[in-house]
Amino acid sequence: MKKCYINGIGVISAQKFVEHSFTKDLKCVSENLNFAQHPDYKEIISANQLRRMSSAVKMGIFSGLKAFQNAKIFDVDAIIIGTGLGCLSDSEKFLKNMIDNDEEFLTPTAFIQSTHNTVAAQIALQLKSNAYNFTYVNGGNSFESALLDGLMQIQSEESSNVLVGGIDEIAQRTHELYQLINVIKSTNNSVGARFAEGSTFFALSSEKNDDTFAEILDVKIINSITPNEIELFVTDFLKENQLDINSIDAFLIGKNDDERFDSFYDFFLQNEKSTVGVYKAFSGEYETASAYGLAIASEILKTQNFPSILKINQNSGKEFNYILLYNQFNGINHSLVLIKKC
In terms of CATH, what superfamily is 4-205? Predict the structure, then answer.
């Protein structure tokens, strides 16, 4: 069975875009809705194309092609994307036009670009790729579903180079509704999480090179478990990979500022031997924020530097060989991703 390596990463997030680092100058997100800090898209996408693209499409193409370029890959065998809500802005635009125009004289552009698989299709057009192209829409496990597919593609030797990503954008009306049902904070003191948007892509390959970040060992997802079942969920997963809890040098967990779900993280916070860090304080919450967490973890393994701003315990860890990522979204859609230093 082939090994699966991360050879290139492209990230657009609420943090300032930095070409070759995702942990430099990190600042905690402070707004209830945190928009992505966009790079100069004209570096990759022509001005004519940009005018017709929504935020999600621009972010997806840019970060996807950046991962592709950084991995020095010249051909891709599969493009696999996870998104929780898809191209929301175009969906809202089309529905608003329907209402405003009494369902008459509608142009199809916004509708065509509103489908969830638009980003994967647009990347394929940019790369002139006719390869396997798939988009997963599985809520908070959307990115992990795409990652698991990419991992299986590599391991089974169906593909040698796979582009995998997670992307979600903020849309005004939808996120106003999220605030009404307390998924997103409406005030600093209300329940809910601080939300954001972003796009993170990984160039996966069966062969490592001088720029390889990490090796992906395994991915596991489950829809619903209780906080008391987290320990068994983790230990069984590690046992399947011939490891135990003491083998893990660091945990990177998707803890946000929604206190209603803090009990899911107690097992990790009680660990006294491993470094424990968080990433959603910097990415914000959204359905595919776990992709940002994987980018952070991959850089930690490559550089062997765990920024203190990420840590929520005092364990330093002399060397990082294994990192385990845990995430949940709104109390459901739990996932584990295990990566290893190359």
Answer: Thiolase/Chalcone synthase (3.40.47.10)
